[in-house]
Design a protein that fits this description.
Order of helices and strands: EHEEEHHEHEEEHHEHHHHH
Distance between the termini: 60 Å
Structural class: alpha/beta
CATH architecture of the largest domain: 2-Layer Sandwich
Number of helices: 11
CATH topology of the largest domain: Nucleotidyltransferase, domain 5
Radius of gyration: 26 Å
Largest sheet: 4 strands, mixed
Length: 283
């Protein structure tokens, strides 16, 4: 006995179940919400006998396409599992990613640009739910670029410039074509995109908290304005930091040389040391 699980959009669920029933398969359906799509879906579970499962489709992408031992790896899979993965080319990988993305988000007749950031490659496509106008696969995956350009932690400015220049040279022409045609939305897929989104959401929430706290402090410290008029105005960002540092309990203002907004990623060791030293001082 085999269990087949399919996740489909609610609008397609009735048609899928009707087709299964017509083919004499018994199916159970559940309402579900995808963590990535953030919308209602239907999960369909189908129990079938082994001989009713025609085949298992396995696909190998960029890493297997270009690995020196790719052939040996595929042969071992076939030998140990009986499954023979199909190695798909870059354009086909881009097409499949696009189809899955526009189906999940339900773009309808609107035009969407889809970006998938993988370890070995990045796929960028343009199209709607029915067709794809542009589709390219680029050899600029995060692992590939890390191995080629990242020589230190944090990333040196010179290496960062080389990395940015290389990416721009690879994708500029394709992205210019997409921009010229136009699109209604951009869809990002993959774990890397989700991580970037999580970081952006966290930073946005911290910014809101800081702005609210700053507004409250300005109200409560307005009486300090006359005394400060004779002082040269500090840079706006530094002014906010110093105001918060002076008003928050046990706060301490530190300067991390060479760091910017993403210091947890660019200067992790130095920032962690500052935090640990501060916590130790509060004991």
């Amino acid at each position: 006995m085999k269990l087949i699980i399919a996740v489909v959009q609610n609008k397609d669920a009735d048609a899928v179940v009707d087709a299964l029933v017509a083919a004499e398969y018994r199916a159970t359906r559940f309402a579900s919400t995808g963590g990535f799509l953030r919308r209602g879906n239907t999960t369909i579970m189908v129990g079938v006998q082994d001989h009713q499962v025609d085949h298992v489709i396995a696909a190998a992408t960029s890493a297997t396409r270009e690995a020196r031992n790719g052939g040996e790896f595929l042969a071992r899979i076939a030998r140990e599992t009986g499954i023979r993965p199909r190695v798909i080319a870059g354009p086909e990988e881009a097409r499949l990613i696009h189809q899955a993305a526009v189906y999940g988000v339900d773009v309808g007749t609107g035009r969407a640009a889809v970006i998938d950031i993988g370890g070995g490659s990045v796929e960028i496509t343009l199209g709607n739910a029915a067709s794809i106008q542009l589709a390219r696969s680029f050899k600029i995956g995060v692992i590939r670029l890390t191995e080629r350009f990242v020589k230190s932690d944090p990333l040196a400015g010179r290496d960062e410039r080389k990395l940015s220049k290389f990416i721009e040279a690879e994708v500029d022409r394709h992205c210019e074509q997409i921009a010229a045609i136009g699109y209604d939305r951009v869809i990002g897929t993959s774990g890397t995109i989700l991580s970037i989104g999580a970081v952006a959401a966290t930073l946005a929430a911290l910014l809101v908290v800081a702005l609210v706290a700053f507004a409250d402090l300005v109200k409560r410290t307005g009486r300090m304005a006359p005394a400060m008029e004779s002082l040269p105005p500090p840079p706006p960002t530094r002014a906010v930091i110093e105001l918060l540092g002076g008003a928050l309990p046990n706060a301490k203002v530190e300067t991390l040389k060479g760091a910017g907004h993403m210091s947890p990623f660019t200067h992790p060791a130095e920032l962690n040391r500052m935090i640990l030293d501060h916590l130790a001082a509060q004991r």
